[in-house]
Amino acid sequence: MSASDDLLASLPHAERIRSRRVQDGVATIIADATGLSSRDSQVLERELREAALAAPGVSEARVALTAAEPSRTLIAVGSGKGGVGKSTVTANLAVALARMGKKVGLIDADVYGPSQPTLMGTDAKPTAEGDRLVPVEAHGLKFLSLGQLVSPGHALAWRGPMATGALAKLVDADWGDAEMLLVDLPPGTGDVQLSLIQKSRPAGAVIVSTPQDLSLIDARRAVDLFNKMSVPVLGIVENMATYVCPHCGESSHPFGTGGAEAAATEMGVRFLGRLPLSLAIREQSDAGRPPAADAGEDGEAFAAIATQLLAAVAH
């Protein structure tokens, strides 16, 4: 390295600088912006330029940023039927994964009932950098929701092409260094599911069901859709399996128990675990405080399923 290059030895963000040189008063810097959002990349470029111009003998600074295409695992979370707690499960799995050190993005693609802003406890709107949305941050993860695109209480009266176009915007947003994207799909097997599979090719799918036969009928349909589209079904989550009376402590099973596990075995699909029918989960979810963010019993249940999910992805 020449003596003139030593003028740039004290630049910030040294871990991202790949080369630096000074010639005829012009500083040229190449830095790696992999994993940074558009906003953070602009900050990196500005700070490097300002620091270079502050060096003695430098009259001009040229900064070039390079970035490797991030590798992300996209996981679709679906259900054959509405009302089985899919969105709550998705939100808490995302939070649990973030607590385990994963860089997580959450996409709320449920056009019929986008509820992630409520579950995440924020009504903040995403910003935009150019033609890309910048996700909102909450509970250690980034998220975008179709519900952020309309006023509270207003229906998303969109036909299939509008919904699938909006989903593409969410998937192609500026997810920065996110290594996993969980997509909360609408219930059923319609346009949004098919569009996601065809355009984004998920690494796998998770199916949420209650133990009762009526729910499992539709859960099997969801599994069949992903199988037909060659998307691996990573596993089934049995939700609302057990209710513990807060007064006497007796356990009961309003929707039955073990049905989703039995169905998973029958279909040759991994069983990821079961979750209780819990008043605390409902109250915390309504208040925008995902139970998975805490270390309590409910949080541990979501963490255990997240661990099983990571094992399924790695398998």
Low-confidence stretches: none
Share of residues in strands: 15-25%
User: Biggest sheet, strands in spatial order?
Assistant: 8-9-5-10-4-11-12-15
User: What count of structural domains?
Assistant: 2
> Helix count, per DSSP?
9
CATH class of the largest domain: Alpha Beta
Radius of gyration: 23 Å
Described by its quaternary structure, the protein is: single chain
Helix-strand string: EEHEEHEHEEEEHEHEHEEEHEHH
Q: How many beta-strand elements?
A: 15
SS-based class: alpha/beta
Kindly report the average pLDDT value. Answer: 89
Helix content: 25-40%
**Quick one: CATH superfamily of the largest domain?**
P-loop containing nucleotide triphosphate hydrolases
| CATH fold category name of the largest domain | Rossmann fold
Spatial gap, N to C terminus: 46 Å
- Major sheet, described briefly? 8 strands, mixed
Instruction: Write down the overall geometry.
Output: elongated
Query: Based on the structure given, which CATH architecture of the largest domain is correct?
Result: 3-Layer(aba) Sandwich
Quick take:
This protein has 9 helices and 15 strands. The protein is α/β, with parallel strands linked by helices and 315 residues long. It has 2 domains: 5-66, Fe-S cluster assembly (FSCA) (GMP Synthetase, Chain A, domain 3); 73-314, 3-Layer(aba) Sandwich (Rossmann fold).
Structural overview:
- The chain has 315 residues and is of the alpha/beta class.
- It has 2 domains: 5-66, 2-Layer Sandwich (GMP Synthetase, Chain A, domain 3); 73-314, P-loop containing nucleotide triphosphate hydrolases (Rossmann fold, 3-Layer(aba) Sandwich), CATH 3.40.50.
- 34% of the residues lie in helices and 23% in strands.
- The chain has helices at residues 38-53, 86-99, 116-120, 160-171, 191-200, 213-228, 259-267, 279-286, 297-314; strands at 17-23, 26-32, 60-66, 73-78, 104-108, 127-129, 132-134, 136-138, 141-145, 180-184, 204-209, 233-238, 243-244, 251-252, 271-274.
- The longest helix is centred in the C-terminal third of the chain and has 18 residues, at 297-314.
- The radius of gyration is 23 Å and the shape is elongated.
- It starts with 16 loop residues before the first strand and ends with a helix.
- The relative contact order is 0.14.
